[in-house]
């Protein structure tokens, strides 16, 4: 059958394409060509040409086809079919046609005629907002010039749908349409139209097959999948009451009453009320799958080691809600029958059992076993016994060796191994901080035995420096069992920690006050003359330099400069600090006449050191401070009781303990500080009769003793939810009743606690949210209403929304109370001004910690008749009290 006819071979039926794939002779070729399709014949390929392409490379296409000049192929045969398949699989071809345009003897000339798929010029979204567009661009794989295949279009549609399903839009509809580009040939624009529709939320989560735990208990174990909030209790109680009051039902109710158990009451309340604000009601499949694993882990922890979810159903109720049904088979509850140890030579079985803390008859909990064996954050575990003594290669494997209907025998198989010596310690990622600043904090040094606790402690110390992202301080031990050594690499990620404070605020009668502050928290004093080491300032030695200025023309001016060297001398952690300050407040009339003035100038020198007793979390610091107050004019004389100069020479001693794990968002640990300040007891050393001394002479040299106690504790509840209680106390006393307590160094309570915005020189400003600044006043004594005794208690609940080092953000809710007294005899820790509220904290490296709180004062402030009510407060930096 010899015909000059193109024969179509339709291949690859599984592809959803409109391409025509053919082999035959070219109709425009010489009519003398003859191909016998009933009798295959072998030809040698003399030449291969490509037609119809604009952007693709001809040689590359020929290579992809698998056909080569000189190859011998049968026509018709698999060679041509294979070439067509190979080209089609590239996904860049619309139509494929292979023609024979010349045959001479046993040689054949082939032409591959192709139609390219269109290329993408640009893409747009419809039906989404600006932030969603930005996020979607990261999710889809579309770039200008990309060849648009059916697979690309389908994957784009699926990616967009998946994105919105993760946002709770399970019924989102995505339609992608193509529009031909009128400028570029064979190019198209695509428009991705999204119809989000309403979010789909979980209405009810139902559990079947187990009565061991309440529905509410099981729902609480689904960490990321929750029900929509509901409050059906009032309606249900009214309906039930009306039903009971019906005469037909009243007699039955009175004669068939039964006692309701606590479990039944909890179940009823859980069905009627759901106000969980920490769990979203949107349905995300990946979160749901993780929650199912968490649910099984909960069952395992209660002894149900064979628990399984035999069936789960997620079904729509309507376009807005869906229900989830989980069928659980808990299986038998198991208990420990015996625990045996093998391979242990260093410690006896009895000692290991005491550390393990699991007794025969305890509920079988493999997760608890692994925690007690490998890492117990709240106490000692078996691994720490060995690894803190150098046994880095230690391994322990719990094996079930016997099982009955409700009991399990466990054998702890131990491999102790040799002790490992630290060989080399390296650091990476410190682009600005010098090596010696890091090395002096490292407790795992070459030549020492490996110690896991010291490794964890070093991780904490490096996080506390503030130069690195605490979430990415990563020690990487690299053990070498051959020579029984280990190398440790500390992988660090630097973060910006210099801070700029540029703000303004209303300072009462002082008007608008501007503030400019600069803090260089990783400064290098010795590199100041070496300009080649500036990055862009001299830094890297861990020193701190701070400059701060506040001003409002002539009415208020304040300047301060401080320098801190945490390792004076470079060998021991002796913290040296020096600071200078000068402030001036003036009472000025409208014609710019100064009626009264208060000036404060001072210098403080401090030296602190770390101590190892009672433990190595303690520090002791001492400081000497010289302050000079100068008061002129009647206005400030009435406020402070005298005019003239007053000098304060103070010695301070502070004992502190800090085991907080993370300075920005603590999840564990505590902080305790006890501080005592003393001036010389001038009245006890001279023979002056203070009964006949005027106020200017009486307060020329201030004398007092001052005590402060600050305590903070952080408790991780679940996930990153943290409970943070605090307690504060302060007392200012005098050596002699004849002299009494002076007008300075007292306590001012109430408001946001920002010293700079209260402008109280010589006063400790303590915040109390929910009340106006300075509103918690003590009884007036000699014209002074600041107190000599204060106390404050705070309870905060914190939850982060971002732990990114460039922007750490967390929300909080608080309840606090405090008071201020003028005499220790009046002190009553139960007589407090209380408040509650919510707030947010934002840490940005360039600006430090910023806070905004809304507080509601629950009591009337002194002198007020009504409760303080709502107040907004703004704070800068870590508030000590």
Automatic annotation (TrEMBL):
UniProt entry keywords in alphabetical sequence: Cell outer membrane, Membrane, Signal, Transmembrane, Transmembrane beta strand
A Pfam family matched in the record: POTRA
Entry's Gene Ontology BP terms: membrane assembly
Domain POTRA: 43-117, 420-495
InterPro entries in UniProt: BamA/TamA_POTRA, D15-like, OM_assembly_BamA, POTRA
Gene Ontology cellular component annotations, sorted alphabetically: outer membrane
Top-level taxon: Bacteria
Signal sequence bounds: 1-19
Principal location listed in the UniProt entry: membrane
Subcellular location: Membrane
PROSITE patterns xrefs: POTRA
Protein name (record): Beta-barrel assembly machine subunit BamA
Organism in which the protein naturally occurs: Marinoscillum furvescens DSM 4134
């Amino acid at each position: 059958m010899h015909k000059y006819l193109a024969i179509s071979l339709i291949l690859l039926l599984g592809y959803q394409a409109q391409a025509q794939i053919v082999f035959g002779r070219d109709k425009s070729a010489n009519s003398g060509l003859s191909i016998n399709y009933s009798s295959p014949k072998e030809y040698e390929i003399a030449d291969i040409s490509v037609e119809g392409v604009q952007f693709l490379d001809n040689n590359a296409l020929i290579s992809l086809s698998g056909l080569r000049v000189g190859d011998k192929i049968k026509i018709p045969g698999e060679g041509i079919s294979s070439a067509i398949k190979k080209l089609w699989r590239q996904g860049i071809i619309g139509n494929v046609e292979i023609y024979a345009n010349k045959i001479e003897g046993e040689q054949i000339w082939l032409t591959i005629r192709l139609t390219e798929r269109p290329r993408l010029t640009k893409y747009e979204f419809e039906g989404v907002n600006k932030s969603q567009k930005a996020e979607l661009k990261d999710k889809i794989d579309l770039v200008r010039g990309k060849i648009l295949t059916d697979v690309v279009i389908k994957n784009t549609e699926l990616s967009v749908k998946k994105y919105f399903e993760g946002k709770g839009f399970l019924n989102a509809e995505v339609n992608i349409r193509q529009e031909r580009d009128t400028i570029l040939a064979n190019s198209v624009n695509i428009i991705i139209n999204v119809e989000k529709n309403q979010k789909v939320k979980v209405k009810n989560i139902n559990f079947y097959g187990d009565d061991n735990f309440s529905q509410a208990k099981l729902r609480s174990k689904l960490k990321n999948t929750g029900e929509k909030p509901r409050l059906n209790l009032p309606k249900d109680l009214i309906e039930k009451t009306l039903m009971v009051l019906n005469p037909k039902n009243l007699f039955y109710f009175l004669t068939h009453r039964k006692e309701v158990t606590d479990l039944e009451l909890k179940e009823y309340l859980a069905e009627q009320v759901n106000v969980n604000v920490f769990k979203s009601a949107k349905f995300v499949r990946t979160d749901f799958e993780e929650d199912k694993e968490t649910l099984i882990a909960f069952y395992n922890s209660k002894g149900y080691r064979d628990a399984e979810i035999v069936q789960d159903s997620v079904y729509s109720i309507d376009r807005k809600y869906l229900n989830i049904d989980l069928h659980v088979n808990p299986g038998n509850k198991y208990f420990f029958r015996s625990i045996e140890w093998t391979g242990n030579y260093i410690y006896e079985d009895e000692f290991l059992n005491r550390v393990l803390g699991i007794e025969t008859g305890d509920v079988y909990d493999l997760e608890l076993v692994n925690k007690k064996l490998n890492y117990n954050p709240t106490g000692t575990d078996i691994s720490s016994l060995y690894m803190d003594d150098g046994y880095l290669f230690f391994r322990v494997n719990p094996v079930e060796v016997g099982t009955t209907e409700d009991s399990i025998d466990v054998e702890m198989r131990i491999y102790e191994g040799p002790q490992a010596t630290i060989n080399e310690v390296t650091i990476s990622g410190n682009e600005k901080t010098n090596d010696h600043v890091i090395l002096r904090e490292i407790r795992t040094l070459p030549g020492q035995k490996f110690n896991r606790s010291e490794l964890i402690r070093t991780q904490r110390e490096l996080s506390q420096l503030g130069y690195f992202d605490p979430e990415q301080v990563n020690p990487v031990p690299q053990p070498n069992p051959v020579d029984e050594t280990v190398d440790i690499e500390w992988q660090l990620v630097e973060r910006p920690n210099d801070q700029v404070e540029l703000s303004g605020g209303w300072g009462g009668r002082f008007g608008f006050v501007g503030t400019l502050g600069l803090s260089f928290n990783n400064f290098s004093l010795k590199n100041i003359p070496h300009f080649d080491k500036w990055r862009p300032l001299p830094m890297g030695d861990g020193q701190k330099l701070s400059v701060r200025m506040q001003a409002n023309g002539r009415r208020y001016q304040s300047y301060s400069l401080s320098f801190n060297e945490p390792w004076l001398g470079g060998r021991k952690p002796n913290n040296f600090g020096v600071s200078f300050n000068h402030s001036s407040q003036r009472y000025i009339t409208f014609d710019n006449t100064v009626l009264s003035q208060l000036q404060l100038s001072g210098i403080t020198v401090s030296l602190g050191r770390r101590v190892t007793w009672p433990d190595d979390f303690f520090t002791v610091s001492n400081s000497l401070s010289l302050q000079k107050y100068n008061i002129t004019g009647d206005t400030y004389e009435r406020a402070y009781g005298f005019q003239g100069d007053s000098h304060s020479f103070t010695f301070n001693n502070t004992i502190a303990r800090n085991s907080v794990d993370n300075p920005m968002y603590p999840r564990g640990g505590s902080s305790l500080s006890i501080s005592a300040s003393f001036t010389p007891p001038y009245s006890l050393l001279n023979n002056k009769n203070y009964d006949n001394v005027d106020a200017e002479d009486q307060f020329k040299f201030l004398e007092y003793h001052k005590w402060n106690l600050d305590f903070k504790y952080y408790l991780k509840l679940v996930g990153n939810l943290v409970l943070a209680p605090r307690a504060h106390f302060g007392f200012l006393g005098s050596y002699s009743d004849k002299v009494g307590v002076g007008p300075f160094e007292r306590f001012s309570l109430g408001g946001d606690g920002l010293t700079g915005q209260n402008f109280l020189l010589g006063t400790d400003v303590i915040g109390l949210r929910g009340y106006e600044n300075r509103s918690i006043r003590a009884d007036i004594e000699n014209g002074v209403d600041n107190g000599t005794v204060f106390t404050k208690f705070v309870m905060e609940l914190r939850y982060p929304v971002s732990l990114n080092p460039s922007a750490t953000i967390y929300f909080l809710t608080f309840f606090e109370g405090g008071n201020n007294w003028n005499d220790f005899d009046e002190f009553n820790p139960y007589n407090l001004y209380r408040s509650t509220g919510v707030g947010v904290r934002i840490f940005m490296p360039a600006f430090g910690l910023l806070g905004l709180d809304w507080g509601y004062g629950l009591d009337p402030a002194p002198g007020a008749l009504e409760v303080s009510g709502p107040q907004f407060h703004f704070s800068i930096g870590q508030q000590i009290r």
